[in-house]
Amino acid sequence: MRHNSSFSANSSDTTTSHKDERLDHVSELTPLMAGDRAARALSPSMMLRPIQRSLSSDSIATIAALPDMVLRAHSIHVGGAGRHSEVTCSFRPSSAKAALKAVQQEQRASRRRAEQKMASTSDDSPAKIRPSFVMKESYWIDIETPPRSSDELSEFLYQLRLPSFFVSILSEPTTWTSEVVALQFISLAIFQILPVDPDSDEIAHVALLSMPRLLVTFSTFPKNEDADGLYNLVHQYMKQRERVPEPSSSGLLLAWLQFHVRRTSAALRKLRVRAVEMDNELDRDFNNFDFDDLVDAKDCLLNVLSVAEEQHGTIDALAAAEKGTEGVDFGNCTAALSVLQAHASSNERLSSRVDKHLNELRERIMAHREHNINQKMALLTILSAVFMPLTLLSGIWGMNFEEMPELQAEGAYQKALIGMFLLAICMVYSFKRAGFATSP
């Protein structure tokens, strides 16, 4: 959004004559998300009060996408009554310009309500003022970009007039970790998700910017992948009936989070079925079991387990951050939030159970292998014990002494062989009676 030097000569008169509509007017001097402090930091010449003039739709600049960047905008509004007469939500294509204007209008209205609240009371500090945007149109902007330099992303993100702290985080996608940062009017959550290919080893994160009437999802995708793959799944899920619990940015946020928590749950259930199949295969044919399948399943589980733990922690942090920011407001969808938290917690428990099952399978395989090795070592030990006295006799009779009476005896060679054979038979019989040669 850029400063437009063309002012209307009658703008102040217009705003004076329409005082009741001032809450719906937006100044182009007002930053989108950063607040008045950021507006004053722009330049001394721009330190005008937002009430001095209002904007038309033409004076609101849209977001200029970078090459190969995919930018999609949707609006969500109240639809017809669903089952049990509850309010339903529906999606429509929209534009980034309409979304940005809605956020500015809501920020301005919120500031106006806060001033009125401060003016009407002088005793205690006012409680958190929740913006009245429940029945207004809310928006969702999805931004996906291939890997870019930090400078390119910073220049793009500054179009949103974000706080510099947020820009420094979002411009380095390779360093993203799960976290939640909540300011007065906007909250940022870095949410870990499963990649498009669940079997991939890479770590995928999505940045969620939530503010009254607008949710922005910002993510990167490898150049060799299609950016529409995961987005289409999310979009189709959120368009289904009763998926969005409330026609607001917070309702959109909960639906978006629920989709990815469900993806994690589906991946865990798939791994659980895979573990049961491997368990049955071990029971049927232990010797022909492929140990590499278990190793692959374990590696995949470790990735999904990491995602499940991070998702649970991020969702709990968002729920706790609600009290200190207007960026998220779960007051009208506490039930959906509770279900989401329970679902994320169950994913973490399920991943622990699958991990325990796979560990038990690995212990069974290792115990079986050790048993086979012990059996082979027992056989080698018996053979060594059998041949030890035979080797002793061979050594004695092989000594080069001139006088060895048994060597000149009639049939000495045949008698020696028969004696050695009988000795070996007796030793094998003794080992068998003692249980050393008994197969399991």
Précis, in short:
Helix content is 50%, strand content 12%. It has 440 residues and is of the alpha+beta class. The termini are far apart.
Structure description:
With 440 residues, this protein is of the alpha+beta class. Helix content is 50%, strand content 12%. Strands 2-1-3-7-6-5-4 form a seven-stranded mixed β-sheet, sandwiched between helices. A hairpin with a 4-residue loop joins strand 4 and strand 5. Helix 7 packs antiparallel against helix 8, helix 8 runs antiparallel to helix 9 and helix 9 packs antiparallel against helix 11. The radius of gyration is 37 Å and the shape is rod-shaped. The termini are far apart. The N terminus is likely disordered.
Features:
12% strand, seven-stranded mixed sheet, disordered N terminus, alpha+beta, 440 residues, rod-shaped, 11 helices
Q: What's the overall geometry?
A: rod-shaped
Order of helices and strands: HHEEHEHHEEEEHHHHHH
Tell me the helix content. Answer: 40-55%
Strand arrangement, major sheet: 2-1-3-7-6-5-4
Q: How far do the termini sit from each other?
A: 79 Å
Percent of sequence in beta strands: 5-15%
Radius of gyration: 37 Å
Number of strands: 7
How many separate helices?
11
What does the main sheet amount to? Answer: 7 strands, mixed
